[in-house]
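Q: Please design a sequence for this.
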């Protein structure tokens, strides 16, 4: 067999998928033992022996996954709660602490602007823990954040720490990044935050591997040199590109890299490993080293580079593949790329089977497969058609670059749409322009850092060259980012779409073996496209029955997304600025919403309008609706500036107005009264905009942060307040007797609390008053996003956490 690792790896992969089932471990043991016996038994036919080996690896995959989930460190997740609790820890730092920089905290430093580190983040291997006075042995890893600038942690430090710990939160909204699963793949199951002052004491230094300690000290030295030599933006880019550090970058810059499909160059990856390996091989050849010395030196150097860059998963994957290639070359073996790829995947999945579910793993191996399948044939077809391009080297580079970028784009476009909800054709041009600049940055930057390890001024000598390359890179990315239609966001495609796409792609590639004509393959693509288009029409027809209201989990704040049957979108508040970037925008991209018809900002508190800043920056908004209050807070001023600079129409809302635009849905403004609430400060919660959204016999009352002084004015609406769903005012704070009268007037079937973990909300009195009305109570803190939809008669409620689904027939409730 020319590629024996391929079937073995595929079998191991399927075993991992079956591993989480309870029956997998005992079944894997029994079937695996039988398969092993059959494989080694004398007289077994070769075909049956091969089948037995494949089944054995299937069982090994099941057992490996079962063992991973039963590891003692995984029990830490069950021992912790979602609420932070006080604790004292004893443990050892197991990685190189990273000091992220806050780009909003800048100091003037001559011509450059440098930011101060705001905290240090590291992974701590637990030895003991105490929630009271008794210390007990503990197993597991936590991601620790230390905000004391007097404490300088390093790899291998044994420490005592006092602070709070909690379980890693699960994502509450569709489209939100799953940090819990991402950290669990690194066997990190808890978060720890040390006290701001005196919360950490270092007991002993360098209680770890001495070789790794030396490498991490070199890494720290390089980090210090970069930060001392370059300004904040340049230092952040170089730390990310050369050392793999996740530092705070300008959000607009990060968005430009993502949307032009070049973010893989900004973060350290296999691209860097290939460049470093090529550079080392070139240097060793020039120095006259024979191959028998070069290959072991390259293996050791790439291993050191992997540790030096923080053992990032993409680097580990590329290093393993490079090792396999080097060993094959050392023993004069013919390199089978499919076999090499399968062997690297098998090693990675054996060490960490959960990497199979990591998007980076899937995209890395998917990209390599795409390159192997498409690049050679496309480059051979394209090169002769570029004969007009001179010199020949430029022609080869353009043909190879276009072919590789096109191969990755064709192979991974649906997967990128699945994970990032983005389609970026401009990536082909952007990669063509930026790849040589990034290559030069890695070569020059890595070389200068290696020299600067011994000669301090080396990095300053190369400052001009690196700054020039960085400037050229940023300008190229910005230019590509401004090309109209270069990228667009799409909703998450269905699993059926992904399966159909890759089945058709496989048929196209195997056309000759299947004996199919090109016309027959084209007919399959046309038929599939027709089915897909008509299924979209059918989905839109079904969706036109429903009014959707999504109450997002934005922590302490509010954000509601209203989608009408005719496809109009209304965003009511947008949470804090951080929540807007990490939760609201991802949800809109996930849902395929590229235009918002109106943004309603109920009042100018930062936890309601802060998220409008990234929303207005990145998504087309037609109208901005407010209560007319002009506040002088930084968030309010930025929202006003963005609305004016983008010529977004601003409308002041008052009671009695109606937001017309969909005949099937009525959106009525109930509050504030014209002239605002007498005696209340204009920017106060009591002047919050209150909306009532109605379809048929189902209605939603959206109350913002209205409080005790504003509720009596709202109660003047009388029976018009009665609604099927109530978004509880002011995060469930205490509203007194007027609040109870209000709840009894509304008589909701469903009450939703938009609440975070701050301020000890909701108030028990409010929860009790809601319970007495008979309402079904949901909380974004506990349930995640609460998604409601109605056809005017029945109401469906779904939750982001717990996957609850409740159907309520409103006519029966009334």
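A: Design:
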């Amino acid at each position: 067999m020319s590629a024996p690792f391929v079937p073995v790896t595929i079998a191991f992969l399927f075993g991992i998928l079956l591993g989480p089932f309870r029956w997998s471990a005992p079944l894997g043991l029994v079937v695996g033992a039988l398969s092993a016996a059959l494989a080694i038994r004398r007289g077994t036919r070769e075909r049956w022996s091969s089948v037995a080996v494949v089944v054995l690896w299937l069982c090994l995959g099941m057992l490996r996954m079962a063992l991973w989930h039963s590891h003692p460190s995984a029990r830490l997740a069950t021992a912790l709660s979602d609420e932070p609790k006080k604790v004292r820890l004893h443990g050892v730092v197991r990685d190189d602490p990273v000091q992220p920089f806050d780009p909003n905290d800048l100091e003037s430093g001559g011509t450059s602007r440098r930011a101060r580190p705001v905290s240090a983040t590291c992974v701590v291997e637990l030895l003991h823990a105490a929630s009271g006075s008794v210390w007990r042995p503990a197993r597991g890893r936590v991601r620790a954040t230390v905000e004391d600038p007097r404490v300088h942690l390093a790899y291998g430090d044994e420490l005592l720490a006092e602070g709070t710990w909690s379980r890693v939160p699960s994502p509450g909204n569709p489209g939100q990044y799953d940090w819990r699963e991402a950290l669990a793949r690194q066997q990190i199951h808890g978060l720890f935050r040390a006290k701001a002052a005196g919360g950490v004491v270092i007991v002993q230094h360098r209680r770890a591997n001495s070789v790794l300690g030396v490498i991490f000290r070199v890494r720290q030295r390089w980090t210090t040199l970069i930060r001392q030599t370059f300004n904040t933006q340049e230092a952040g880019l170089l730390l990310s590109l050369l050392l793999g550090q996740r530092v705070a970058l300008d959000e607009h810059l990060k968005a430009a890299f993502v949307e032009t499909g070049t973010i893989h160059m900004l973060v350290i990856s296999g691209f860097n490993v290939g460049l470093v390996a090529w550079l080392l091989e070139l240097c060793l050849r020039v120095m006259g080293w024979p191959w028998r010395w070069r290959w072991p030196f390259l293996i050791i150097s790439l291993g050191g580079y992997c540790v030096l860059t923080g053992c990032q998963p993409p680097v580990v994957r590329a290093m393993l593949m490079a090792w396999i290639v080097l060993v094959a070359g050392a023993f004069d073996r013919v390199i089978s790329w499919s076999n090499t790829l399968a062997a690297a995947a098998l090693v990675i999945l054996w060490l960490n089977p959960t990497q199979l579910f990591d998007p980076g793993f899937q995209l890395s191996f998917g990209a390599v497969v795409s390159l192997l399948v498409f690049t050679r044939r496309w480059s051979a077809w394209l090169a002769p058609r570029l004969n007009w391009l001179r010199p020949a080297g430029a022609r080869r580079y353009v043909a190879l670059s276009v072919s590789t970028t096109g191969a990755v784009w064709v192979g991974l476009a649906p997967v990128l749409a699945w994970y990032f909800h983005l389609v970026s054709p401009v990536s082909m041009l952007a990669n063509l322009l930026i790849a040589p600049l990034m290559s030069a940055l890695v070569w020059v930057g890595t070389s200068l850092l290696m020299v600067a390890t011994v000669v301090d001024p080396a990095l300053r000598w190369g400052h001009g060259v690196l700054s020039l390359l960085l400037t050229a890179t940023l300008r190229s990315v910005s230019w590509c980012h401004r090309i109209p239609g270069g990228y667009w966001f799409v909703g998450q495609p269905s699993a059926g779409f992904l399966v159909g796409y890759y089945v058709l792609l496989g048929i196209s590639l195997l056309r000759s073996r299947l004996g199919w004509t090109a016309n027959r393959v084209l007919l399959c693509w046309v038929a599939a496209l027709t089915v897909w288009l008509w299924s979209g029409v059918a989905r839109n027809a079904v969706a036109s029955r429903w009014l959707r209201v999504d109450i997002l989990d934005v922590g302490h704040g509010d954000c509601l997304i209203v989608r009408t049957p005719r496809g109009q979108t209304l965003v009511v508040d947008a949470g804090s600025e951080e929540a807007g970037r990490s939760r609201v925008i991802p949800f809109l991209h996930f849902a395929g919403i590229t235009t918002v018809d109106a943004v309603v900002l109920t009042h100018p508190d930062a936890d309601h309008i802060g998220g409008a800043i990234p929303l207005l920056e990145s998504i087309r908004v037609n109208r901005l609706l407010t209560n007319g209050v002009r506040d002088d807070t930084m968030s309010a001023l930025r929202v006003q500036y963005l609305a004016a600079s983008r010529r977004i129409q601003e409308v002041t809302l008052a009671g009695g107005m109606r937001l017309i635009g969909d005949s099937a849905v009525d959106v009525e403004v109930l509050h504030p009264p014209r002239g605002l609430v007498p005696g209340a400060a204009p920017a106060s919660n009591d002047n919050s905009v209150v909306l009532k959204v109605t379809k048929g016999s189902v209605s939603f009352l959206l109350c913002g942060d209205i409080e005790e002084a504003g509720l009596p004015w709202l109660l003047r609406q009388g029976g018009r307040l009665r609604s099927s769903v109530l978004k509880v005012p002011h995060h469930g704070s205490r509203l007194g007797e007027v609040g109870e009268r209000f709840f009894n007037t509304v008589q909701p079937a469903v009450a939703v609390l938009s609440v975070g973990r701050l301020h000890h909300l909701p108030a028990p009195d409010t929860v009790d008053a809601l319970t007495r009305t008979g309402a079904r109570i949901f909380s974004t803190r506990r349930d995640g996003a609460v998604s409601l939809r109605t056809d005017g008669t029945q109401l469906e409620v779904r939750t982001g956490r717990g996957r609850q689904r409740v159907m309520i027939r409103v006519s029966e409730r009334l």
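Q: Thanks. Anything notable?
A: The chain is about 50% helix and 20% strand. Confidence is low (pLDDT under 50) at residues 101-117.
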